[in-house]
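Researcher: We're reviewing a set of sequences before deciding which ones to prioritize for further study. For each one, I'd like a predicted 3D structure that I can look through quickly. This is N-alpha-acetyltransferase 35, NatC auxiliary subunit. If possible, include the structure in token form so it fits the rest of the review sheet.
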Amino acid sequence: MADKPVYEEASIDGQPSKLASIPASDTTVWADASPLLQAACAGLRDGELIHGDNFNLFAAMSALEIMDPKMDSGIVCTYYSIDEAIENGAAPIPISLDSTIDVCRTIDIMDHLLACEAAWHKGHSLAQTVFSCIYLLRLDRTAPHALLHSYCRIIRATCKAVVSVVSDARTHEEEDLFTMTYGLPLNGDGDDKCLSILNAVEETISRQLRACKATSSKRRLPEDLEPLQSNPNLEEGFCKALLCRLRFRKHFFHVLSCMKRPQGRGLESARKHIASCLTELESILKSADFLRSCFDESCEGDIDDKTTASGFEPIGFDAMLNSRLSAPTPPRAIKILSWKKAVEYFVKLLHDLDVICSYSLDPHLESLLRFVVQFQKSQPDLVARSHLQLLLVQDGKLYGRDPFFAVINKAAALPEATKNQDIQKNESFLQLGMLELAFRNECGEVSSSSNDENTCMKIFQHILLWVEEQTFWIAFRFLILGFELELYSTGEYCMVYWYLYAVLIKLAEKTHLMMAVSHDTAKRKGKKKKDSPKDLARESRIPPAVLFLQCYICLAEGLTMYLSRCLLL
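Model: Here's the predicted structure for N-alpha-acetyltransferase 35, NatC auxiliary subunit, in token form for your review sheet.
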């Protein structure tokens, strides 16, 4: 066998086309499998596949369909390895010997990385989005290029911070690719200094911008300060375009760092950095006209579909280079967001994060649930939801400071006696999955016990009532969410409204009982006196919250009857 065998594949026109060579190693030997595949194809009918005795459904979903671009993770791509891509000049350093082109192409890389990052946040794999950048895969090579090196370092540190947040929050689904890093170089030495490196580059460009604005002959360019590129007419525009991109990355990294501080201590600082991020994004959008006017040549196609502000294809990217890292899953077709849509995504993400940071950390559970319901109406993406989850639950406590039993105690309006009870250690309280049965058994066992145990029984009954109310409220919200997400077909509306009708009746019943119990508890805390006629009249009224639920009940009932008649017709 030759050291570097060359394989042939039939092209579309039926003629063989030579493919790039795949080098063999000391432990591997390449063999031609074509005769075996041809024999298998001759003996297989459509829909059949070759498999072993232990083949199962999961293996079937992960099976390779040879030569199918959507299923074969080892199918031919432009380059077989990072080293081969670099040897063929796919990611040159410097990017160009012309300093003006070098700066412009560096900005293209920054813009495309932003688009890749947005596509990653939207659910594509990290390997085929952000880390399709060859410069990120060999970050040490960018050291001579200070501008590109600083930007790639902050990108890598940002990706690591986002993966950490989503992994800790566990708001993603098991099949999501978001947190899968596939052995990519996400952890690098010196990433803790990424901000200091970025600040040094930013300061250099800021000095250059100030020098460009100097109109007096007395304010001459310092001897140690070299221009970014060779065209003095473009210097100021390039400085502004670079600064807004560098500053956005810096402030966005600060946002992620501040929001992870325990007990919400960094939320105010995060809001300041969010405001700065939004300002820099506006400047990034404004820089597009300048970047498109730098060269006489124009890009092909619709500029709104491009992943760079200039409209040119970026250098140093290959989405298929890491496709085999995602095995055993087949490679996905990656559609990178356009540059404008990527900016729009980050604007929305920052607004969602600002809503989280502006929350008052109200310890009342009812206010918290209202906030969560209102927040989800904006349909926040995974990153924003993860930050909210980490803010709410830290070290098993609400906001990292309030024990959940104390929060539930306040929400359920439990009597003061609970503070002196070991109710939290009671097995029937801990096993909420079989709450009702456990509580009833517990209540039956303690009915003839001492006064302390009778108090515990009343507490259990009170908690059970509160849990039932919350369960029906969650069921109601679950059904409503189906409308907001457009999950129901028109033929299912009648059934859904009937479900809503049944759930709302139980919710109104439990809410009324809960309010009555809470009122009795508050009444016992006050002085004992004879009830006045005004108090009796007030108690006979239906609370507004229950009246509101009754309105919902009537609506659900009416819609159910209307839709059922429409179906009969």
